[in-house]
Design brief:
EC 2.6.1.- (chains A, B), 12 strands, Aspartate Aminotransferase, domain 1, homodimer, Aminotransferase_I/II_large (chains A, B), seven-stranded mixed beta sheet, alpha/beta, transferase (chains A, B), PyrdxlP-dep_Trfase (chains A, B), pyridoxal phosphate (chains A, B), 2 domains, Aspartate Aminotransferase, domain 2, 13 helices, 386 residues
Amino acid sequence: MTPHLARRTADIQPFHVMELLRRARELEAQGRDIIHMEVGEPDFPTPQPMIDAATRFLTSGDVHYTAALGLPQLREAIARFYHDRFGADVAPERIIVTPGASGALMLALAATTDPGDEWLLPDPGYPSNRHIVRSFEGVARALPVNADTRFQPTPAQVGGAWTPRTRGLIVATPSNPTGTLLDAAELAALRAAVLARGGTLIVDEIYQGLTYGVDSSTVLRSMDDVFVVNSFSKYFGMTGWRLGWLVAPSAYVREIEKLAQHFFISPSTPAQHAALAAFAPSTIDILEARRNEFATRRDTLLPALRQQGFIVAAEPQGAFYIYADISQLAADSEQFAQRLIEEVGVAATPGLDFGDNQPRRHLRIAYTNRQERLLEAVERLARLRA
Amino acid sequence: MTPHLARRTADIQPFHVMELLRRARELEAQGRDIIHMEVGEPDFPTPQPMIDAATRFLTSGDVHYTAALGLPQLREAIARFYHDRFGADVAPERIIVTPGASGALMLALAATTDPGDEWLLPDPGYPSNRHIVRSFEGVARALPVNADTRFQPTPAQVGGAWTPRTRGLIVATPSNPTGTLLDAAELAALRAAVLARGGTLIVDEIYQGLTYGVDSSTVLRSMDDVFVVNSFSKYFGMTGWRLGWLVAPSAYVREIEKLAQHFFISPSTPAQHAALAAFAPSTIDILEARRNEFATRRDTLLPALRQQGFIVAAEPQGAFYIYADISQLAADSEQFAQRLIEEVGVAATPGLDFGDNQPRRHLRIAYTNRQERLLEAVERLARLRA
């Protein structure tokens, strides 16, 4: 049977790292020890307060649909968190609880993107963003970014790439895979460049809270005419629950509610009840301790990698990734990643997963693993070079 | 701020019943008693074995992403269920676990539908199906169906509506809102009509298991070249968990996996662990007792409604809905539904939510409420007519 596939499927790439992971699992099945530094989720369990909240809720058995936009009390709790933690006033009515940040981005793009509409996205960047653009028949246009601008796009670049079909710009702070941030002035300048052209700005704040040596913030402190995508996965440690949220400009909420009804009916009810415990002071204490642990890992790993010949020109200040230039070590990061697994048992993600901008020169190394394992990985890297 | 909305949003309608629900809640806040017969989910709690399985899993705290296609052991359990319950051999590799049946339909349509491709859908039908078609820039073409064919489309109708742009047919058995079934011969004839024209058949089996006076089956017993959408929501009583699955023809699975990675990353991990308990004999005992309860409700409600002047020409044999012709009672089902709420405190869903085929003549009445409440609702209806 020859499948009759939609044209979009030809443009949508898999996560290439999955192939490496398959190989890693084969080697592990043979008894080899693999240090996993390719994983894009915290290695910590879901904090106990969220587990307890979900378990308490489940004893009722009353796991029915919620409103499509999410539990009102959760939308209010998120609004309070924006106020108390970041000094941002966000009306709960603008907060749409979603099945993960992916669900939030799907809603934002489905609500705004006609066939042929172009979105500008920094390259390297999180691959699903461009694939969701493509899925709704938009066109993802890469803005190649590099260490000179800390892997973030500039207003000049936005202006230069803008066409009559450009619908807007999607940026991420902190960025995956580079861990770099946009400060308030840079975000204001990007917003101005986009809005002056009649476009829309979407800010991915999925790694909000996971910043090191600098406080987290939100673009919502000063702007109410942009979309913000966020998640309970990373800072809050709830990846498997699949819960995120979208903050939309007020004028879009009613239309997005319709889409949410049809795409999702409602977000996961147990996950929403778990998330009600996410903002409690006792939970934040746990999360801040984890943030400190991530900071320590970064501070250990970054100089050690540099000593091994990895070039990291733009200091990562957030998320849990180091996007390293491997040009002093190898010609091709995909082959290099294969060698790392086969020869010394270290898994990392080749740049290929993040776009077309010098991907074979870069490797994403996640510090979602214990300190001692990271140090052992560095020793293994040294062995590879020896 | 004037929102810059995608054109698709103008074509996507909200669930109209939400307005009625808002009014029902207002009245309830004023102390009025409303009998809810508009709700599209079982009134039963999630069965205890699933609650226990989830709770046990949560004690580990290890709520991380799973594979994008779902936990291998859950895909195998679903395959075993197909074999043991329905005598259908379905390879676990073809089973894709999704965030609800909505997620399954999104994957099937995103994988197969180019802009302008037409899908044929029975009208009345579940509204999200046509809105998801539209969201991926397909065109939903209604096949008006009525009681003569038990609200199911015929091969002749499919042939008559087929155009060079037609991509395929989506049918549901049991159907929402009519509760009618397609038998094996009818499904075979519809498949033949679709495949002869180079099209694709999607069968919505979301209400599988909830049939009364007739055994449930699956189209997968005799066909491996169709898509099947299913859910843990209805028969298994897990609505709020948001978990369903898609069975795809083998040749599509790899492409659908890519889409699932980007759309969802993975289905909810707690929900998947809960669902592992869904097929145990002790769970099935609970579910079959509920099925008997639904059958009793139907057998009580259906004659009582007929006695009140509701016309139900095509016997509903599944799901938990009665799609009643109200033309002997009122000229417009939307106004009638408003009167029901305001005057006698009964909530039901006007036909408007299910398409354009005589919607004002029909009302969907769900028996997702206790027997005594259903009987009280009938008494109230009698009062309305008096």
